[in-house]
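Pipeline run #58 for the internal structure catalog. This entry was flagged by the ingest filter as a single-chain record with no existing model, so it goes straight to prediction. Upstream metadata was stripped on purpose; only the residue string is passed forward. Reviewer on rotation: M.T. Logging verbosity set to normal.
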Amino acid sequence: MPSANIVRTVAIERTPRVMQLEGLFAIAPSRESELRWAVHLPIEDRPWNIGLIVGASGSGKSTVIRELFIAELIERFDWPVNRAIVDAFPSDFGIKETVALLNSVGFSDPPSWLRPFAVLSNGEQFRVTLARAMAERKELFVIDEFTSVVDRTVARIGSAAIAATIRKRNQRMIAASCHYDIIEWLQPDWIYEPGTDSFQWRELQRRPEIQMQVWRVDRTAWKLFRHHHYLNTELHPTAACFCGFVEEQAATFCAILPFPHAIRPGWRLHRLVCLPDFQGVGLGTAMSDFVASLYRASGKPVFRTAGHPAVIHHCAKSPVWKMSRAPSRTSNAGKSSTSTANQDGAQDRITAGFEYVGPARPREALGFGLKVKHVEGPGVGSEQCGASGVAGPDSLLGVGCASEASMSVATLQGAQK
């Protein structure tokens, strides 16, 4: 059991101002200042993955972790100045494993993976630092000032993504923070407060629900998201655009197109982006599933071509998507890898095709002003819908994180804008 009797003393030079201060506040004269902590952490009594040392500034959090966990403490990494962040991961860490780890902590922006650490945002630096810590410290690592340099929305969502990844990998992390608002998102197995010398074990709980309001938006909204799309940043002129807002902040974007076909005409998802600050808790996948369900209410099929590994992984396991084409190498023009136009391989990439087979949402579709056809069959609700054009009740979508214990739902409210 990590234990320590910690004493920190510092000499006080008795200057005229010091003596005046003692007189003003009735402080007993002294030539030194002393602080003491008697710390006993019974963390070896049971298995755990995440510990949290929390308290106000000056309560002794940093002192405790430097006394008990100095060997495991990660204060900073040396990042290559002019090289991509992926080059900073251990040499025995393959690129697929590196990408999977970055995705799992909610840093799912391939263009940002190619940039040096110094040019990333605070939120991106926070997530990539945690990913590298997991890659290099297989047993236990300690992070001081956890979430201190990011805004509180990033802190909460980032904590949920990181906690899910740590548990999935069965690693251990101790975080020290002055912010109590991360507790229900990080879901630590134990909490220690040095200010009151209190220690408690906790049972794992569901993280809070995330409410996301979805609006039909003008195509100009793409300007906010386009630079975070990992492939083409162009938006088709006929695209219908939707934006998801979390706590009144734009978080996700999804566009959909008509899909002309001689036998099965329908719809095709065109662009999907989740801004970096909101990645890692399934908002992007929930958004795409919701938009697909709206257009499925038209009675026509909804398709998507996925190239991002995380999106392929989600769709392949999701009950609302059916794989129509296994992962294979195709060109951006959509031609097979055996076609003449694709022989140079300059734009070849591995993609997979999927069809939406989940429930349709006709009431919500009417709320967005979409045409709805009453159709019964696999994946289509049989409920009759009126033509009032008023959005129905809130739509609940499952938002899956990396571990079953952190499953929650996002409330997606349909509205016209």
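catalog note: The first strand starts at residue 3 and ends at 11.
catalog note: The CA atoms of residues 311 and 342 lie 24 Å apart.
status: ready for reviewer M.T.
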